[in-house]
Amino acid sequence: MTTEELKEALPIFTDTALLEQLIEKGQILELQAGKVLMEPGQFVKMVPIVLEGSIKISRMDDEGRELFLYFLDAGETCALSLTCCSASKPSEIKAVVEEDVTLIAIPITAIEQFSNDFKQWKDFVSNTYQNRFQEMLVALDAVAFKRMDERLMGYIVTKMKQLKTNELHTTHQEIANELTTSREVVSRLLKQLEKKKWIELGRNVIYIRDDFEELISK
């Protein structure tokens, strides 16, 4: 990949020297949906910057239940990975490729150098921490203050926007895992939405009306 190609993929970086270092030190990876990039307990060896596609970041409890935190989209990186790098601590999150992704993997040995040498990198890291902190507050608020039906509808809207589709190919159990609830609760709430004709349920697929977000906001 050339500096011009990387600049086009990451318009947040205009410093040619930084772009050159990203190419020199980083590794371009193309990964398919479902690929697990990081598990809790693993030590972080690289920090991913997404060029195309998306990665889902989740928190796991001791029983294997999953709490969705945020997505990494094009031009974004993972604040929690950066934190683990700087503190030399094992990962506390699970990272899974949500849709086929192209990323540039930056080794942890280069992170400190970039912070010392490039203001744009320092600003990028600072903005990443701020944005992810806000997103995790939203996730915490949803668990603490919102009813499960509200959380489910919010989840559906988030997935629609993330995947840019009105068809969600997933199981009720997978949704339950991400919302830290039971499959039975998810199935019951989805049936209620189907009765309203806001969605249609198929085998491991949910068909969603174009005006779903508008309907739930009324």
From TrEMBL:
Q: Which GO terms describe its molecular function?
A: DNA binding; DNA-binding transcription factor activity
- InterPro entries, sorted: cNMP-bd_dom, cNMP-bd_dom_sf, Env_Response_Regulators, HTH_CRP, RmlC-like_jellyroll, WH-like_DNA-bd_sf, WH_DNA-bd_sf
Q: Report the Pfam families cross-referenced here.
A: cNMP_binding, HTH_Crp_2
- Signal sequence, start to end: none
Which keywords, in A-to-Z order, does the entry hold? DNA-binding, Transcription, Transcription regulation
- List, alphabetically, the PROSITE patterns matched: HTH_CRP_2 (PS51063)
Ranges where the HTH crp-type domain occurs: 146-212
Per the record, its GO cellular-component terms are: cytosol
Gene3D superfamilies, per database record: Jelly Rolls, Winged helix-like DNA-binding domain superfamily/Winged helix DNA-binding domain
PANTHER family (UniProt xref): CRP FAMILY TRANSCRIPTIONAL REGULATORY PROTEIN, REGULATORY PROTEIN YEIL
Q: What is this protein called?
A: CRP/FNR family transcriptional regulator, anaerobic regulatory protein
Taxon lineage: Bacteria, Pseudomonadati, Bacteroidota, Cytophagia, Cytophagales
